[in-house]
Amino acid sequence: MSAALGSAGIILGFVASLGGIATLAVGLARGRKRLLVAGRTYVWLVAAGAVVTFAAMEYALLSHDFSVAFVANNSSRHTPFPFNVATLWSALEGSIILWATVLSGYLVVTALKFRSRATDPLVGWATLTMLAVSLFFFGLMLPNIGPADPFKATGFAIPPGFDGPGPNALLQNHILMAFHPPMLYLGYVGFTVPFAFAIAALVTGRLGEGWLLETRRWTLFAWGFLSIGIVLGAWWSYEVLGWGGAWAWDPVENASFLPWLTGTAYLHSVMVQERRGMLRVWNLTLLCATFALTILGTFLTRSGVLDSVHAFTESGIGVWVLSFFAVIVLVTIGLIGWRGDRLRAPGRIDSPLSREGAFLFNNLFFAVFAFAVLLGTVWPLIVEAVNGERLSVGRPWFDFFGMVLGLGLLLLMAVAPVLPWRKTTTETLAKRLQWPAWTGVTAIVFAVLVHARGLAPLAAFGLGGFAAGAAVRQVALATRRQGWRGLVGRTNGGMIVHLGVVVLVVGYIASTTFQTSREVRLTPNQTITIEGHTLQYLGSESDSNATRTSVGARIRVDGGKTYAPQLRRFPNNAQAIGTPSVRTGLVDDVYLSLLTAPDDSNAVNLRIIIEPLAVWMWIGGAVIAFGTLLAAWPGRRRDPTDPVSAPVRTERLRDEPERPLAGVD
Amino acid sequence: MRLKLSYALMAIVLLGALWAGTHGSHTPTADERALTLEQSIKCPVCRGQSVAESDSEASKAIRTEIARRISDGESDSEIRSYFAQTLGSDILLRPASSGFAGLVWVLPVAGLVLAGSGIALAFVRWRRWGDRAPGPELRS
Amino acid sequence: METLAAPPSRRRAGALIAALLAVVMLLLVLVLVTRKSAADRADFDPLENKPAPPIIGATLDGKSFDLANYRGEWVVVNFFATWCVPCQQEHPDLLSFARRHAQSGDVQLISVVFNDDAANVREFYAKNGGDWPVVNGDQGRMALDYSVVRVPDTYLVDPVGIVRARIPRSVANSDELDQTISRLSDALYGSASPSS
Questions:
Q1: Nearest by CB to A655, which of B55, B94, B140?
Q2: For the segment A7-66, what is each residue's pLDDT rounded down to a tens digit?
Q3: Hey, are the CB atoms on B93 and A389 less than 8 Å from each other?
Q4: What is the pLDDT of residue C102?
Q5: Could you tell me which of A348, A363, A349 has the C-alpha nearest to residue A285?
Q6: Crossing angle (nearest 10°) for helices A2-30 and A33-62
C-alpha cells in the first residue's frame, strides 16, 4: 500500500515537473504572461508529490512493511524509533527522496517569495531551471524505470517473523546521525536556487538589476546549513568512528567541502559586485560551479568508484548523475561563453591594497583550494585511466596543501577587515593592524610557552590570533558607533563567522598535531597516567537489549566521572562496532576506545588519546552558525557605497551610478 | 615613530618565539617514526583509514612489522618500499613525487601561479587605464 | 547598465578559455564514467610466477618447518585464523583434500596462522581434526610477505617453489583445489599430472 502511494507521489512529482517546464517554456518563448503564472501551479503539485513520497516511505519504515525492498534491506524491527525515521536517508534510494523533498520545499518558498514578480521572464527561467533539476531527481526514482526506485518490491513473499538487517551499525550509534544529513541537504540543495537565478540571468542577459543580490541571502542560508552540516558530520565522525579524528579528507567529506569552498568564495566576491558592480561574470561562474560540484559530489558518493568509510553502496545511478553533471557543465560554460562578454562590467579595481583586492585574492585561494581538493580526490582514477598505475592520495597530501592555502586564507582574514574600499596607504594599514598583529604574536608566544612546537602550527596559531584580533577590532568599532546594531548585518556577522573559523581551525590543529595516543592493556583496578590525566580501570560491564548487545570497560578519569567505551554488536550484523567514550574538557579531551573484549582475567586493551582543544572545533562551529544568523539580519537600507569601516577619505565618483541605469536591460 | 617602534618590538618578539618554538628539531624517537610511518600507510581492508587509526588484523600486522623493521635499523624509505612491493603502491597515502602520478604535487602549485599571474596582469592593466585620460568606464 | 563590448581579442581569449574548460571537464567525465567500482578492482597479485617467499618457523607441535624442504611437490599454503568464519567453513574441505593426498605424497597442505593465539589454534585442530603442518605466523609478518591482508587466503606453490595461483577467498571445495592444480600442472609439464 505504501509502495503504491509512494510510487504515485514520484510519478506526480515527475509529471508535474514536466508540465511545469513545458508550460513555462511556451510562456517564455511566446511571451504569454498567463502561462508564466500558470506554470507556478505545477510547483505546488511537485511539492505535493514529494510530501506524499516522503510520508509513504516513513510509513513503510515505521510499520515495518518488508514488502518494500528498501525497507527489507535497510530497516529492522529492533531499530529504535528515531533511528528508524532516519533510516530513510541512510541508504541510496531514500537519500534521493530526501533530496527531492528538500528541493520541492525550496521550489515552494521561491515561488512564494517571487509571486509578485511571477510574470517576469527572469523568474520564469529560474523556476524552469529548478523544475528541470527536480525532473532529474524524480526521474531517478521512477517506479520500475528509474535506477533508484525506492519502492521496488522485495520480490519474494515475506515469511512471518522476517526481519531486515537494520541500518549499518555505524549509523545507529549516535543521535547526530539523525541531524547531519538533513542539515547537509538543506545546504547542498539550497544552492540550486541561486544557480537557477544565475542561469536565468545568463539566458535573459539581465545581470545589472540586482537579481543576484536578491538571492544572496538564499546563498547565505544554504551556505550556513552546509557549514553546520559539515561540522556535524565531523563531530559525528569524532564521536563514533573510534580513531579520534574528525576529518580524514575522505572522498565523501571532500564532496561536501568542495561546494563549501566555492560558496564561500562567492559570498565574498558578491560584495565586490554590490559595491563596484564588478566581477559579475565570475560570480555567475562561482554559483554554477557550486551547484555543479554538488552534483559531482553526489556522483562520487553514490557510484562506488571511490572507496570511502561512508560512501553509499554502489548502484547504477552513477552514469545518470554523471550525465546530468556533464549537461550542467556544458550548458553553463556555453551560456557564460555566449553571454559573459556582454555582461562584463566596466570599471577597475584601483589597487591590490584594498578590500576589493583582498576579496580577489580570497577568491584566488578558495578557487585553488577547490581545484586541489577535487584533483586529489579523483587523481587515483585519472592515473589509473592513463597508465594503469594504482596509487592513493591521502591525508599527507591533503594536509600539505590544506596547510599552505589555509595559512594564506588566515592571513587574508586578518588583513581584509581593516582594508577600506578603493585603496589605502601602507601607513593606514600599519596603524590599523597594530593591535591585531600584537594579538597574533601573543598567541605564538603563549603557544610556545605551553610547549607547542613546529613552524606550521605556530604560524597557524599566530595568523589565527591575528585574524581574530582584526575581527574583534571591527566588531568593537562597529558597536562603539552603532550600539547593538554593530553586531548584526553582513560585515559584523561576517566578523563573528571569521572568529568561529579561527576557533575551529585552532581546535583542529591542536587536537591533531599535538595529540598523544597510547594503546595499553589494563587489568582490573590498574591505574595509568597520561599527559597529566589519571585513568583507572574499574572493571567490565555488559548489557543486552532488543537492539544490541554490548560489552564495555568502566574507566574512571581523573578521580571523577566514569566513562565506558564499548564494543557493540547489533543483531543481524556480524561485526562488533567500537563505541568510543570521550571525556570532553575545555583544555583537552580524553578519548577512550575499547580494542578487545575483556578476556578471561577481565583485562582489556584500550586506546587512549589525549586531544588538546578538541571541543573548540564544535564551539567554533556553533559560533559560525551564530555569525551566519547575525549576518543574515536585515540591516537598515544602506546606501551601498557607505563605508563600513572607520571613516577614511575615499573620493566618491559623483557619476558612478548607485543603481544600474534604468531602461537598459 | 611610535608605530615603527611597536612593529620593531613585535618583530623581535615574533622571531624569538618562533626560534624558541622550532629550534632543536630533535631526531625522532622510534615511536615517533613508527607513528609517522603508520599514518602514511593505508589500512588495506578498511575504507580510507590509515594503519595508525584502524584496529583491523591487517593493520595490527603492519604496525608490528613497522616496529620490527625500525628496530632492525631500516630507513623510512626502505620500510615504505617493502610495503609498496608486497601490498601494492596504493598502500602509501603519500603519492609518489615522480612520474605522471607525481603531477598531483605540481598541478595545484601551477594553478596558483597561473591564476595569480592573471590577477597581477589585471592589476597592471587597470593601472594603465587609470594613467590614461578618463576612459569609457567613467562616462555616466 | 553600462556594458562594454570587449575588444575582439578579449572575446577570443574568453571563448578559448571556455572551450578549454569544457574539454577538460568532458575528459574528466569520460574518465569517471569508465571507472569500475572500487569493489571490483582486480586484486593486487605481486607473487604470480615469482618465487614463494620463505616460510620458516615452528609448527604447533614444536617441530621446525621450512617451505624449501618441500621441493618436488605442490604445496597448498593456506592462511587462516580461528576467529575467521569462512576459514572455519572451509576446514572440512581442507580435511578431505589432505586425506586424498596423504597417500600419494604429491601435494602437501600447510596452514599458516594469521594473527591468532597458538592455544586457540591447537584447540581448534584438536576439536576439528587435521594433521598437516600448521605454522605459527609470527604476528603476521609472513602474511605480509605473501601480501595477505585478510583470511582465508590460499596460495598454490609449484614443485620448484614458484607461486602459481592464489585463491583470495575460502576454498569452495576440495575438488576445486584439485582441478586448479591439475590445470596448472598440465600447463607447466604437459599431461603428467600428479593429481588423482
A1: B140
A2: 999 999 999 999 999 999 999 998 888 888 888 899 999 999 999 999 999 999 999 999
A3: no
A4: 82
A5: A363
A6: 160
Q: Which residues does chain A have within 8 Å of residue C14's beta carbon, measured at their own beta carbons? A: 337, 340-341
CA A535 to mean position of chain CA atoms: 37
> In Å, what is the CA distance from A322 to each residue of A65, A93, A327, B139, C112?
33, 17, 9, 46, 46
What percent of chain B has a predicted confidence (pLDDT) above 70? 92
ipTM of the modeled complex: 0.91
List all residues 6 or more positions away from A274 whose beta carbon is below 8 Å from its beta carbon: A213, A640
Mean pLDDT of chain A: 87
Alpha carbons C30 and C27: distance in angstroms, whole number:
5
Residue B104 contacts A where some CB pair is shorter than 8 Å: yes
Distance from CA of A546 to the nearest CA of B (A): 27
What is the Cα–Cα distance from A372 to B111, expressed in whole angstroms? 9
Question: In this structure, which long-range contacts are made by residues B7-13, counting pairs with CB atoms below 8 Å and at least 24 apart in sequence?
Answer: B7/A430, B7/A434, B7/A437, B10/A437, B10/A438, B10/A441, B13/A441, B13/A445
Contact A73, A60 (CB under 8 A): no
Q: Please enumerate in sequence order all residues whose Cβ is within 8 A of that of A127, keeping only pairs 6 or more positions apart, or say none.
A: A20, A24, A39, A40, A43, A107, A110, A111, A196
A656 pLDDT tier (thresholds 50, 70, 90)? very low
- Determine the Cα–Cα distance for residues A657 and A663; give it in Å rounded to an integer: 14
Q: Is C141–B65 a contact, with Cβ atoms under 8 angstroms apart?
A: yes
B42 DSSP 8-state letter: B
Looking at chain C, list the stretches that DSSP marks H as alpha helix, in order from N- to C-terminal side. Answer: 8-33, 85-102, 118-128, 141-145, 174-189
Kindly determine whether residue A360 and residue B119, on different chains, have CB atoms separated by under 8 Å: yes
Give the number of other Cβ atoms within 10 Å of residue A159's Cβ: 7
Task: Provide the pLDDT for residue A662.
Answer: 38
Does residue B134 have a cis peptide bond before it, meaning omega lies within 30 degrees of 0? no
Instruction: Output the nine-digit C-alpha cell for A575.
Output: 561485526
Question: What are the Cα distances from residue A603, in Å, to A457, A531, A533?
Answer: 38, 23, 20
Q: Helical H runs in B2-102?
A: 2-22, 30-39, 57-71, 76-87
Identity of the residue in C44, C115, C145 whose CB atom sits nearest the CB atom of B57: C115
Q: State which residue of chain C sits closest to A304, comparing Cα positions.
A: C37
> Could you tell me which of B113, B135, B116 has the C-alpha nearest to residue B124?
B116
- Smallest Cβ distance to B87: which of C115, C141, C147? C147
Residue B111 to residue A657, Cβ atoms within 8 A:
no
What average pLDDT does the segment A612-629 reach?
96
Residue A639 has pLDDT above 50, yes or no: no
For A432-470, the pLDDT digits (tens) are 999 999 999 999 999 999 989 999 999 999 999 999 999
Q: pTM of the full predicted structure?
A: 0.90
